[in-house]
Amino acid sequence: TLLKQCIAAPGSVSALRFYASGSVPTTKLFINGQFVESKTSDWIDLHNPATNEVITRVPKATHDEMEAAVAGCKEAFKTWSETTILTRQQLMFKFQQLIKDNLKQIAALITKEQGKTLADAEGDVMRGLQVIEHCCSITSLQLGETLSGVAKDMDIFTYRVPLGVCAGITPFNFPAMIPLWMFPVALVCGNTSLIKPSERDPGATMMMMELVKEAGFPDGTVNVIHGAHEAVNFICDHPDIKAISFVGSDQAGQYIYERGSKNGKRVQSNMGAKNHGVIMPDANKEMALNQLCGAGFGAAGQRCMALSTAVFVGEAKTWLPELVERAQKLKVHAGSEPGADLGPLISPEAKKRVCDLIQSGVDEGAEMLLDGRNVVVPGYEKGNFVGPTILNHVQPKMKCYKEEIFGPVLLCMEADTLDEAIQVINDNAYGNGTAIFTNNGATARKFISKIDVGQVGVNVPIPVPLPMFSFTGSRGSFRGDSHFYGKQGIHFYTQTKTITQMWREDDATDTQAATAMPV
Ligand code: NAD
Predict the structure, then answer these.
(1) 135 catalytic per annotation
(2) Which of 59, 60, 260, 470 would bridge with 483, disulfide CB 3.0–4.6 Å?
(3) Does residue 270 have its Cβ closer than 6 Å to ligand 1?
């Protein structure tokens, strides 16, 4: 109720328990069930990307605060890991309902801090909610294995037991979904969780902590610290943290994977992407073009599964003018405005980077079909907006192709055959997602079998798997063994304990010690 009141009333956000009062409200830490004001002197200003007004200041937590957060998680683990699985399941049911009840409020805060449209922000929360819903079936997911009678009077069985304190480090682009890939799965398996949300939009995580508390999760089962590199190093090095889940850029992901692994931790690291859509001439044209626009420009291209490169095979290239027409119709506006199709980029720096990459494409010989760099949004002139941009005749050697752009930019390439298109994609370093648009089953089947990418869509532009499966990006887009959520998520957050037991009534023949290896 408090959340609803605070968010419903414009300007009253400072009344939220995780914002302290002051001219610019500060975001609090969440330690052992309390929203705590940081004692740091080092703060990060968080701007609304549509206006560039400062809306909160995010602390870089002090060393003592981070230590207190880990100690709290470690202490909570002692009792939490011994709660019954049915208790954990019931708490997940409650949490699931609370997220549903507060979905619009969380989405509104995401739009304010991150910039995406309200409808898209609701999708962000929904996709995370589905992970919680899957966690509710933990009574099946955490089952071990058994084999009775492996020797006389002897059985072997396994348990999947929790690891301890597990940390999560999240990116700015899905402020609800990605933390929800992490802490609910960790908790439901019996771990405790330390989250360091993106310093650029931690509000959704903090709001969810209100709901964690309301659901009745014991204090310390989830703690939240804020910060940037120092907080990340702290997590990588702390001996009481057993596992790290990371989602974000390549640079940070590789670094965290190496530093965490070197310290003996389990690490799963989801990183950047360059996702290609292949458009066959036999595809349903209307559907393919609409899906390219939605997946290329939605969320202003700030999705790791955005389709950022379109490969037109054969005659499909003649559809380009119609693609441009559709992209021009998309409405660039503040995410909170009705009818907005894409909102601003996260920061002025991100906008500059995207514009520079567009220019590099032009300088290297790509053809500009649609230029969104000079878009002006009335009423939001200071926002970080870039409109849909389409570059044609892009070559693999170009900088704009080699780097992840993470903006509303669709690169277009041509191929004479499906084999040629597959080769281009397999030569790219990333393996997060790809899609083919075709009406031919044999073509689709060939694509599925030859493509070296972890998540494949057939007439589905953003093939993010539902949580009964796992998020299986591959090659340059992932480091680690077990992926996020689904069965692999449960594996990541548990270790196997294998028990070999013998129960035998008094045996008169068992009179002598045997020293040979038992078989
Ligand atoms: P980012 O790497 O800048 O930040 C992610 C987290 O890492 C943040 O919490 C940040 O504080 C920390 N961090 C940033 N730089 C660091 C450094 N040098 N050393 C240590 N820690 C650092 O990522 P972002 O800009 O917030 O997110 C966008 C990126 O995330 C894109 O590359 C996108 O493709 C990727 N992403 C990948 C997936 C996926 O599942 N593969 C999903 C979403 C986003």
Answers:
(1) no
(2) 470
(3) yes
> What would the DSSP string read from start to end of 255-272?
HHHHHHHHTT-EEEEE--
Residue minimizing CA distance to atom 39 of ligand 1 = 270
Q: Secondary structure of 139-193 in the HEC alphabet? A: HHHCCCCEEEEEECCEEEEEEEEECCEEEEECCCCCCCHHHHHHHHHHHHCCCEE
Mean pLDDT in runs of 10 for the chain (519 residues)? 39 42 86 98 97 97 98 98 98 98 98 98 98 98 97 96 98 98 98 98 98 98 98 98 98 98 98 98 98 97 97 98 98 97 98 98 98 97 98 98 98 98 98 98 98 98 97 98 98 98 84 86
Instruction: Confirm or reject: Cβ of 498 under 6 Å from ligand 1.
Output: no
Q: Which residue has tokens 């709001």?
A: 207
Residues 426, 436: Cα–Cα separation, whole Å: 14
Q: How many of the other CB atoms lie within 10 Å of CB of 11?
A: 6
Nearest by Cα to 357 from 307, 411, 306: 411
ipTM of the shown complex? 0.99
114 lines ligand 1 (CB under 6 A): no
Q: 222, 244, 230: which is closest to 60 by C-alpha? A: 230
Question: Residue 338 corresponds to which tokens in the numbers above?
Answer: 């009705």
- Residue pair 479/254 in contact by the 8 Å Cβ criterion: yes
Gap from CA of 121 to ligand 1 centroid (Å):
19
- Please, what's the largest Cα pairwise distance for the chain? 92
Q: Could you tell me how far CA 424 lies from the centroid of its own chain?
A: 26
For strand 154-162 and strand 146-151, is the pairing parallel, antiparallel, or unpaired? antiparallel
Cα–Cα distances (Å) from 255 to 116, 233, 239, 267, in that order, read 28, 10, 18, 11
Quote the ligand 1 centre to 100 CA distance (angstroms): 27
Q: Is the CB of 349 under 6 A from ligand 1?
A: no
Q: Cβ distance 458 to 412 under 8 Å? A: no
CA-based nearest residue to 141, from 129, 156, 131: 131
